[in-house]
Amino acid sequence: MTQPALTGTRRSAFVVYRWALTVFLLLGVVQIFLAGMGVFALNGREIGAPGETAFSPHRLVGNIMSAVALVILVLVLVARPGTADIIGAALLFILTGVAQSVFANLGSDASFWGGLHALDGLIVIGLAGFLHVKAIRALKA
Ligand code: HEM
Q1: What is the pLDDT of residues 64-75, one digit of tens each?
Q2: Phi and psi, residue 55, nearest 5°
Q3: Which DSSP letter does residue 110 get?
Q4: pTM
Q5: Which of 32, 52, 83, 107 could in theory staple to 114 by disulfide, Cβ–Cβ 3.0 to 4.6 A?
């Protein structure tokens, strides 16, 4: 079904949505860096053990990214640019705000989930990149 043209409030929400995706992508790059830095700052401590602060910056940025993913979802629901964008943004929120915490917590007991956490990190960055390019194209059209 053809969507009506984006005008007024819906267009404004879509422009902010596009910039929120830019912020998400930049935080994603920082997040990968912080994960690597965390591993090298462990100094023999176990991840998640009492007193371990090596991953604190990564945990903080992860929570900020979850909040940004929620903002992205709200903005796309206001803009309603198309079904694919809405499904993509909903998936981005679930994979960032829910799955990443679940995988990270399960990863403490079984490394398989830690692997899924890292993989999911790359998937959310790829998905955000796809939605970002799609939004830029839609705004230019
Ligand atoms: C966009 C990418 C990523 C996002 C959004 C993300 C998000 C998060 C979040 C939200 C937490 C805190 C979980 C909680 O305490 O509930 C976390 C912890 C963690 N993340 Fe990531 N992460 C990403 C990529 C990675 C990568 C690539 C690695 C690679 C090793 C990694 C390793 C870890 C580890 C070791 C923890 C600590 C787990 C614990 O507290 O026991 N993350 N991450």
Answers
A1: 999 999 999 999
A2: -100, 5
A3: -
A4: 0.93
A5: 107
